[in-house]
Amino acid sequence: MADQIIIRNLEIYSNHGVYKEEKVLGQKFLVSAVLDTDTKRAGISDCIDFSVDYGKVCHRIAEIMENNTFDLIERVAETLAKTLLLEFPLVKKLEIQVKKPWAPIGIPLDSVAVKISRGWHRAYIGVGSNMGDRMEYISRAIDRIEAQEDTRVVHVSSLIETKPYGGVEQEDFLNGCIAIDTLKEPMELLDFLMDLEKQAGRKRTIHWGPRTLDLDILMYDDRIVNERELTIPHKEMHKRMFVLEPLEEIAPYLMHPLLQKTVTQLKETLEKELRNK
C-alpha cells in the first residue's frame, strides 16, 4: 500500500447544483481527499519540497469549487481529481469525496456524497505504418499523443522494418512501441488512438491490410480487459516479433499478466518456436 496524505472534510461554500436556487444562494460542501504518494524522502529530510503540500492542495480545491459552477457533484469530483493529478506530480493516485449536506430533495437528508478514485496508468502502445511517409505518420502520432494534457510519452523505442503479418500482400512496415502515462481509462484511450488513426487517413477495409497508421494498446498496467472492442493484453502480442522486439527495448521486464512471462521471456519463446518451424 502506498503512503497517503489524507484531507478530511474541507469546508467550502460554493454554488453547485441542478436547481437555480443552489446556483444563486450556494451552500456548504465538504471535500475529502486521499493522496497516494511516497512520503519517505520528505520524512527523512524534513523538507516540504519532497512531499505534497496539503495546504496548497486545500487552497487549490477551494479555488476550483469557488470559481466554477457545475450542475453535478460528479463533475465537481472529476474536475478536482484531474486538476490535482496534473498539478501535483508527486500524487500518483487519489480518492476524492465531495459531500453535499442537506441536499434539497424534498425529504430530510443528512448528506449525499460522490466518491471517486483516479490515477496515472502506464500503458504500452504498438505503432506501425506501411503506407506513404511511414516515419512521418508515426512521428506525428507520437507528437499528438504527447500534446494531450492527460498523457505523457515516457519511452519511445527504435523503429524496425518488418514484413507484413497476416498473409495480405503489401509493403513492408515500420514498427515500434511507446510507453505512456495516462489518466485515460482503457476505452477512452482506445477511442483517442482510433481517432488519431482516422486523422491519418486509415481505412479499415481489409483485415490485416495496409494502413497509414496502426496504434494498438498492448498493455495497460496489469489490467485484463476482454470487451468486444478491446482486449488487453493484446491477444496477438506474444506471437509477433515486430511487437516484442521494440517492446523489449523499452520494457524487458514487463510481465504479461496472463502468461506470467516477461517481454524478454516471451521474445525468447517466440524465437525458439520460429527456429523449430
Automatic annotation (TrEMBL):
Keywords, sorted A to Z: ATP-binding, Folate biosynthesis, Kinase, Lyase, Nucleotide-binding, Transferase
Domain 7,8-dihydro-6-hydroxymethylpterin-pyrophosphokinase: 207-218
Pathway terms, separated by semicolons: Cofactor biosynthesis; tetrahydrofolate biosynthesis; 2-amino-4-hydroxy-6-hydroxymethyl-7,8-dihydropteridine diphosphate from 7,8-dihydroneopterin triphosphate: step 4/4; Cofactor biosynthesis; tetrahydrofolate biosynthesis; 2-amino-4-hydroxy-6-hydroxymethyl-7,8-dihydropteridine diphosphate from 7,8-dihydroneopterin triphosphate: step 3/4
Catalysed reaction, written as an equation: 6-hydroxymethyl-7,8-dihydropterin + ATP = (7,8-dihydropterin-6-yl)methyl diphosphate + AMP + H(+); 7,8-dihydroneopterin = 6-hydroxymethyl-7,8-dihydropterin + glycolaldehyde
EC number: 4.1.2.25, 2.7.6.3
InterPro entries listed in its UniProt record: Dihydroneopterin_aldolase, FolB_dom, GTP-CH-I_C/QueF, Hppk, Hppk_sf
Presence of keyword Lyase: yes
GO MF, any single term: dihydroneopterin aldolase activity
Gene Ontology BP term (one): folic acid biosynthetic process
Domain of life: Bacteria
Job of this protein: Catalyzes the conversion of 7,8-dihydroneopterin to 6-hydroxymethyl-7,8-dihydropterin.
UniProt similarity note: In the N-terminal section; belongs to the DHNA family.
Matches recorded under NCBIfam families: folB, folB_dom, folK
Name of protein: Bifunctional folate synthesis protein
